[in-house]
Structures are given as C-alpha cells and as structure tokens.
Amino acid sequence: MVGNDTPIRQDSEDGPEPLDESKVNSISAAEQSLQGGQPDMTSEAEWSEDVEEETKPTFLELFYDLVFVVVLHKIATGLEEEESITRDTVWAYCLRVFMAWWTWHMTATWTNLCSYLTTEYHVLHYVAILLQGFGMALMSSAGTEGDNDLFLGFYLGTRIVNLIAWVYLVNQLTASQKLPQEMIDVLDGLVKVTSVFLLVESAVYIPAAVLAHAGSSEKSLSLWLAGVLFTLSIRTIGGWNHDKKTEEVKKVAKFKLDHLEERYGLLVIILLGEIVASSAAVSSKDGFWVYFKVFSAVVTAFTGFLLYFEALPKGRWNAQRVSNLASMNWTHCHFCVACCLAALGSGFARLMEEGDHHDEAHASSILLLCISSGLFLMFSAAFVYFGRDVPPGSHLAPPRLNHGQRTSIRCFCGALILLWGTIQGYEPTKSTLSDWKIEATCAVIPSVMFCSFVAERWGAQRVEQETIAGALLAANAHA
Q1: What count of other Cβ atoms lies within 10 Å of the Cβ of residue 226?
Q2: CB-based contact 191:35 (threshold 8 Å)
Q3: pTM of the predicted model, to two decimals?
Q4: For the chain, which residues make up each domain, given as ranges?
Q5: What does the pLDDT look like over 316-373, one tens digit per residue?
C-alpha cells in the first residue's frame, strides 16, 4: 500500500511532475475498507475536489442506496407473510440482510474509486452497477425461506460481476500505462483481497445452497452463518491490526468520512420512513385503536430519528474518526440497525393487517416489535460508545454524562423493551390476547425510546464552564 507521507512523482517530457496523490490515496483508503482498515481522514480545509467530476458518481451512489433499501424492504416482507415467526425465519432474515448490505458496501467502494476515472471507464462503471442492481433484484425475488438456495446463487453471481469489473479495470489501466506502477500495485492488492473473499464465500455458500435445496435448512443456515461470521471477523481483525501498525491516522483526500456518514444517515432516514409507511394499510372499520397503532408507528420512527441524529454532543468525533477498529464496529452496527429497523416496520405492518383479531399471529407481531426496537437501542448504543466526546486538541467542555454512562442508559432502555416483549408477547396457548396488551405495547415502545433520548440529550449537554485551556486561549485572543 502506498504511504501518504511520501510524495509520489512520475517523469514526463518536461521533467518530473507531481502525481495527483489523491488518486493513490483514494484507492489506498478503499483497500483499507475491504481489509478492515479505516479510510484515512482530513479536515474540510484540505479537501480539494472537482465538483463536476464528482457529480455523476454521487448521483449514482444515491440511486444505488435506494436500490439497497428497496431490496431490504422486500426481504423484510418475508416476516410479514409468516403467521408464526420461528427461529429459522429470524436467522434467514438476518443473513439475507447481511448479504444485501455486504453487496452494497462492496459496490460503494467500487463507486468511490470510479470518481477518479476518465470518461471511457465510466461506461464500464455504469454497466457494472446495472448488473449488480439486477443481481440484488434477483436476490430479493427469492423472498421465502425455502428459496435460500436461489438467494445464495444470485448473491455469488452478483459478487462475480463485481470481481470481473475490477479485473477488467486493472488490466485496462495496466495496458494503457497511464498510471504509475505504485498505483497498479495497490489496485492489484485490492483485486487479490476481493478474490480471497469471493473464494472463501464460494467454498461456504455453495455447499449451503446445496443443503438448502436438499431440505436441510438447519445445516444450511449454520454454514451460512459461519461465512458471515468469517467476513465480520476478518474485517474486525483487519481494523485492529491496522491500529496496531499505525500510531496516528494519516490524511487523505477524496475519501470523505463526512460523505460516508451522509450515506449511512440517508439509509437510516429511509428505513425510518418505511416504519411510517407500514401504517398506511389502515381501514376505518378496524376501530379506534388502529389509529393509536398508527400514532405509535409515527412516534417510534421520529424517536429513532432523534436517537440517531440528535442525541450526541455537538462537536464530537464519530467512531470512524477515532480508530480503524472503532470504524469497523461502527459499520457493522449499521448493518444491525438496518436489520432492526426493517423488522420494526414489518412488525407494525403485521399489526395493521391483523386488525382487531388477537390471535397467535398477533402475539408474534408484538414479540417482533419488542425485539427489533430493543435491539435497535442496543446496537445504536455502539454509536455513542465508539466515539470521542472531546476530540484531541479541542477546547470543548465535557458533557454532563460521559459516553459510557449514556451508552448504559440506551442499553438499559433496550433491555426494558426486550423484557416487556418477553412477558407480553409470549402466550403458552393459542388463547386470544387481551386488548390492553397490544395497545400497551404500542405505548411502551415509543415511550421508553423517548425517555432514552431525553436522558441522553440531557447528559450530552456540555458543561457550561470552559476548560482551562479554552479560557487561556480566549484570553490570549483578546490580548
């Protein structure tokens, strides 16, 4: 990998000219992302980019983000169609969401690197994105648990398209001799990392697909889970190893951390909107309390927005700015949050479709709502923990509660919702649920989430007094 501290130059007819180092750093950052490393960071003042050059990839990113959300919604509808949600159903849903997220992540890396390509290579870029979007659509078409073999097959096909595009790009750049050997070596390393991931995935997911086709659902899911854990562990170990070798975070242009945060923030907003949209199937003949369920869905989505965007202290560093390991955990927790929000929307949709008929399916819906909302609080607590309230070199006052205390508040509220769901959602027989259990659950979930936000927001307020360093700095400025 090319270091960021050594200027790279290439010879020309007029003598040595400086090479656009941002191109090298852009590829280097993407390679770190695949291996588990954190893309390097820089201040806004040091970013110098051609806006016109970035326009097309940016709009393409937004388009592909929407494709990912649509696929995720399609996967989540499988939870709505099941009358009784079993353990295998939940595992299959989570694994499918991971596959969609991992495909989106790999394509996002590809899109980021294509920002520096010349016009003739953008055609290949668009074709690759189109084929991968088509592959994700095929993945979502295998919507039932019995179609796991088709889902895995479509996933591997989509990943192969991604690798072929990479290999073709590297070969074309090597033959054109437009780039120095250092950049070609970095691209070769990125292709090798992608190839290793694909080989391991093929060795695991092809047998899993065969077992699923043969009807061995439990063995297939176990093998599938092993492949997912391998991917997560390799990325986590890679982030830890990168932190061990790198004492300080280097600077890079092009790969903006703010841009990465915006993309994940957009995904969260759309998924929260899906929760509100799940309450659209309302009929007036279902009675007054159905509108209370609609209100519960809207407030839950709004509170989720507050917890994600407004509960943190101003001026803090998010996880991806702290360390590579924290960045990997931040990314992985977004997969978990997406999984929970999509399931939460499916839970509200089930309640709307079931109306006032309180049966075993309704009990499963209550359990799904409580588990998804409780786990959302717990996984999103990682965004609070893996951060830094007072960045190095800043003169910000510390908040009333440190990040560990605020994390504990959110996890405690999540545990309360899980406990409520375990008690209220479980029915030893198929006897009907009483009305108060359903309406109470719709009240408890947004109420506990809002209490968590209020407590965290109060704790995130910075102490009014200035730090000694800040006071001295202000005094010197006045002098």
Answers
A1: 12
A2: no
A3: 0.78
A4: 33-255, 256-479
A5: 888 777 887 888 888 899 999 999 999 999 888 888 876 555 556 677 888 889 999 9
